């Protein structure tokens, strides 16, 4: 319990203590501001040095290329060829190293974040806060997945009101918008989310917005059940994705090797492959469902009673989602497979 002075003498003594303590606080805060200024100076000098090195490395790469062109390989001696190849490899590695460094340095926001948040610094300056932010992002998706599952289940099986459908679509618009903002912040903080997954959320925002404006009618009712069942399935897949992605995040954090593609830890690799092979059939089924939605909508568009522009817009959006999701997922899996093969080869050498 806090000591509370009773008599006047105790009050004076307490005031003296508080005065001393206040001096200490002032000193600590002065030191803190000094260190902050020091940090800001270091950040600036790091950013400037990185930019300068990048520029020089670019010029050096161009000069090396020119040298190679002017002296076709037979004329260059083998040592020079080796030395050039070594420098080129180091330049490539340095680009990755700079990206990692920049994840801890303040940088200008991209156009989207500038429009949404304004010119505010969103760089998280240590690994713990980066991890906590990513973890919070995954948890946010999980909570919204549960809420959206409940609402879409109610719309699909319990109530059939256009107003409730509108509420569901509005929730989807808000959810996807929020994801695009959070993902842009994650990317600024060094996350390697592929551009498509962010674009996928822009397209999904657009799609949900169009669904929101689709007026009640025969065509809306024709598509409604298929759409809501698809949404239910999507939430189910999202739940599996959460399990996989947060599993990866915790394991890699425990290993302390996020983004270090050269180090392989067999336990993690085998867990990741098991998770991925379990998840992939569900993901691909979802992608083909998107294609099916798009075909259904294009067929509906050909009906004589189709007057709503929303039908063709939603059809195009589903087609874009299918193509982007399918090819990106195939690309990600192929890349992981090749990385794995390279590591296995390197180990057997
Ligand atoms: N949405 C958001 N972030 C994603 C993502 C997605 N769909 N896929 C990957 N990421 C993130 C990862 O969390 C990781 O972030 P980090 O650098 O901050 O740690 C980064 O991107 C790199 O991930 P990567 O190693 O390329 O892939 P992964 O092993 O984490 O996930 C898949 C691979 C295929 C499981 C994942 O990309 C995925 O679920 N894709 C399918 C999404 C989809 O099709 N949804 C619609 C279903 S109907």
Could you characterize the architecture of this molecule?
The chain is mainly alpha-helical. It has helices spanning 8-70, 78-102, 111-117, 127-158, 162-188, 195-213, 218-255, 266-301, 309-348. The protein is extended and about 80 Å long. The chain binds coenzyme A.
Question: How would you describe this structure in keywords?
Answer:
single chain, 349 residues, mainly alpha, binds coenzyme A
Could you give the topology of this structure?
Layout (H helix, E strand, L loop, with lengths): L7 H63 L7 H25 L8 H7 L9 H32 L3 H27 L6 H19 L4 H38 L10 H36 L7 H40 L1
Helix pairs in contact: 1-2, 4-5, 4-7, 5-6, 6-9, 7-8, 8-9
The structure holds coenzyme A.
User: Which regions are unreliable across 5 or more consecutive residues at pLDDT < 50?
Assistant: none
State the end-to-end distance: 67 Å
Query: SSE order in H/E notation?
Result: HHHHHHHHH
Which bin fits the share of residues in helices? over 70%
Number of helices: 9
Described by the principal axes of the CA atoms, the overall outline is extended
**Which percent band covers the strand fraction?**
under 5%
Supply the helix-strand structural class. mainly alpha
Radius of gyration: 28 Å
- Total count of strands: 0
List all distinct small molecules, including ions and cofactors, that are bound in this structure: coenzyme A
Largest sheet: none
Mean pLDDT: 89
